[in-house]
Amino acid sequence: MAEKQVKPLKYSSLDGLSEKQLKEHHDVLYAGYVKKINEIEEKLKTADKSEANATYSLIRELKHEQTFAANGVKLHEGYFENLGGDGEPYGDILDMINDDFGSFNNWKNDLIAAGIAARGWVVLAYDLDDDRLYNISCDLHNQGGVWNSIALVILDVYEHAYFLDYATGRKSYIEVFLKNIDWEYVNSQVKKYDLVKRKAAQGG
């Protein structure tokens, strides 16, 4: 993997999320994952593969934590990128949500329930095998994800994402998250991967 760099925030605060909360999350937690993935990648270059062992070995630990740190970077970057909007859904992604969930309200209620039930993340993802959207719950960065899916909306429900502003009020935080989704960015991801054309071709 190429050396990672910390991507800057495109906003200083959001409606319902303070500058302090966002800076702690971005500048400490996310930046820490960037630092660690670079450190792990460097150590992998010289790790002794002949000592590989499933009970314990350095290569096992590095390979395992590589996925944790790499997904920590990717998920956080997606989370920060899909915020900063007015929360009003529109366009292709809204049509897709209505098609796969029955209505935007159904999707929202499913996301909220998944967010309360998850220990780490909820991802609105397009499954390239099923050609439809799912809300996927993940307890850890490298546990719960579904292969061959494209992440479109990423919700961080670890306490560090909201505790400074909401203490244990996770549902209130999720509702604020929904009000700040940048649906223009989400639609740009739908266009990037040509998901509308793909879905239509599969009869979705």
What does it look like?
With 204 residues, the chain is mainly alpha-helical. It folds into 2 domains: 63 residues, Helix Hairpins, CATH 1.10.287; 111 residues, Iron/manganese superoxide dismutase, C-terminal domain (minor pseudopilin epsh fold), CATH 3.55.40.20. 52% of the residues lie in helices and 11% in strands. It is built from 8 helices and 3 strands. It has a 3-stranded antiparallel β-sheet. α4 packs antiparallel against α6. The longest helix is centred in the first third of the chain and has 26 residues. The two termini are 35 Å apart. The mean pLDDT is 96.
Please describe the structure with a list of short key phrases separated by commas or semicolons.
globular, minor pseudopilin epsh fold, 11% strand, 3 strands, 204 residues, mainly alpha, three-stranded antiparallel β-sheet, 8 helices, Helix Hairpins
Secondary structure topology:
Layout: H1 19-44, H2 58-81, H3 91-101, H4 104-117, E1 121-127, E2 132-138, E3 149-156, H5 163-166, H6 170-179, H7 183-192, H8 195-201
Helix pairs in contact: 1-2, 4-6
> Termini separation (Å)?
35 Å
Q: Which band does the percent of strand residues land in?
A: 5-15%
Main beta sheet strand tally, sense and closure = 3 strands, antiparallel
Q: How many H/I helical runs?
A: 8
Helix content bin = 40-55%
CATH class of the largest domain: Alpha Beta
Shape: globular
| Overall residue-averaged pLDDT value | 96
Name the poorly predicted regions.
none
